[in-house]
Amino acid sequence: MGRVSLCLVIMFFICSAQKIDAQVQNIREKQDTISATKSLEHIRPENIKKGPLNNALDVLSGQSAGVNVTTNGTDRLAMLNSIRVRGTTSIMGGNDPLVIIDGVTSDIATLSTIYPADIESFTILKNATETAMYGSRGASGVIEIKTKKGTGRGFEISYDGNYGFESMYKHLQMLNGPEYIATAEALGLDYNNGGYNTNFHDVITRTGLIHQHHLAFSGGSENSNYRASFGFMDHNTIVKVNDYRNLVVKLDATQKAFDGRLVGDFGVYGYSSKIHDIFDTRMLFYSAAAQNPTYPAGTDVNGNWVKNSAASHINHPGALLYEKNDSEERNFNTHLGLKFNILDNLILSAFGSYSYSSTGNAQFCPTWVWAQGNVYRGEFKGEDYFTNVSLSYNNAWGDSHLDAVVGAEYLKQVRTGLWVQAKGITTNDFSYNNIGATSSRPFGGTSSSYEDPSLASIMGSVTYSYKDRYSIAAALRGDGSSMVSDNNTFGFFPSVSLGWDVKKEGFLSDTDFITMLKLRTGYGRSGNLGGITSYTTLNTVKENGIVSINGAPTVTMGSIRNTNPDLKWETRSTFNIGFDLGIWDNRLMLTSELYYSKTTDMLYEYDVPVPTFAFDKLMANIGSNTTYLSNVVNHYFKCNFKHLLNKYR
What we know:
Blueprint: E1 2-13, H1 22-32, E2 41-43, H2 45-48, H3 57-60, E3 67-71, E4 80-85, E5 98-101, E6 104-106, H4 108-111, E7 119-125, H5 128-131, E8 142-147, E9 156-167, H6 177-186, H7 200-204, E10 208-220, E11 224-236, E12 243-257, E13 262-276, H8 281-290, H9 317-320, E14 324-343, E15 346-365, E16 374-397, E17 400-423, E18 446-451, E19 454-466, E20 470-481, E21 490-501, H10 506-509, E22 514-528, E23 541-549, E24 552-559, E25 570-583, E26 588-607, E27 617-637, H11 641-648
Parallel strand pairs: 5-8
Antiparallel strand pairs: 1-9, 2-7, 3-4, 5-6, 7-8, 9-10, 10-11, 11-12, 12-13, 13-14, 14-15, 15-16, 16-17, 17-18, 17-19, 19-20, 20-21, 21-22, 22-25, 23-24, 25-26, 26-27
């Protein structure tokens, strides 16, 4: 499949700021934001954008050492395979990094829906010393996303959009109608001649069209500002019935009060996606290749699809286009943050957010391709309630500087699901919109689910620096989860790190060639519960059959697994050492990392004997896993020749 894109970008600035050398400025901002004790990385989209970005994840790919992004396509709606920060940390799950969008807990799927034009910057936290503030939620790394806000420079508006076309680049070269007949006769084979000459690849494909539009406007003053954006994408793929469409709306507002001592931040984000697909794309193209080219593209005079009797279990590709595998996804979240300067060096912060998500899937296999027809409808909903309160203190005296933070947070999640599967379709005209018209609902095809895990946390951190050269940071966080056993509810995860800004030492301070050199090391522990669910530690039962009791059908219940009431936190310990080097006024920057990671009390389903156990698997904390990575290098190179010539002329 190939794509040709035409990109149109129009930007209007009614009130514009004075332009500076943006490339050099961004490089210096990158230098300033690198902490001496941390190996976090900041990524700004404008530094790497070389063309239209279809997905926010395109910004991350290949830009940070130890961060691997894998997708099966470049479209915004392509399914994400994985994103890993320093590899896999757990066998059972919980390997996805925590995603924080403007302070709101999110996930990779939601991140992929944000338009790159709305993103101000990425910050990637890798080490346990950096992710300590997020506790168990950040066990596999943290990706913080800061979206653009109102500038306070007056009204600004911008638009960008692009159109693209898709066509099939290559397909299997099959015989046409006359060639099929001639080949069969030459080989002395029996054949069916339907009297047509059909190219079935043309029957199922078309020239695809994709267009995206993004409109943003902002305004306000220094004390009160806002920014709103709207994004829309419509994608008709090369398969005739496959269509993707999504809409994104985002609004942010900031208000200052009491001479700037109180700052309020409010945001709303909404996303809606619709996907029209078929049940099995591979089967569609295989049937197009295997179909007799002398058969018609549509039905025969009796309204029946003509199948190739010489190819077993191969349906007419035109009939497969009537399959449906549609899905709808809706996300909504809102947040409110308040910061109050009690004293000049004492700040009280409160943050709350609410997120709602709904994912629906509907499948329809008509009787033309499924003996009795098959229908499925399912809907899964999620709600997240999050609140955080913290008190931060900072003070400087002489050559010393101290930062301290204490806080507490609470996360409540609710997950529900309902799905129905049925067969025995009277007519294909109803599609999946009338399940009541089906005649049979197989056992286990109708069910529902509910879970509501919660996580309560307390945390504290202290950072001390001397002469702005030497620094030490320590943090301690305690997480209590409802998903582990009662006697292992809480896990405590400490961390400590050291940093040295070598450039500020006397023997390097006058060196023009080296403009930055920072060394750091740290050790920390974090917890992970990604491999278990809300009911793993409980003796749960599930329907396992139907029997007749007093002449009435009755559903029987039974245990579904061995129960382990002693499950506890999976713990990951990480040791890290690294450096950041900048030369030639930071036009060439080098970041190198060496880390050792070991996961203990690893959650895994181990083989157990039957008997003593009722089932042959048992979830337990037994194993361990070790990861080494050395000489991980991230090159960051930006050079502005005009600035360079002016500096050294």
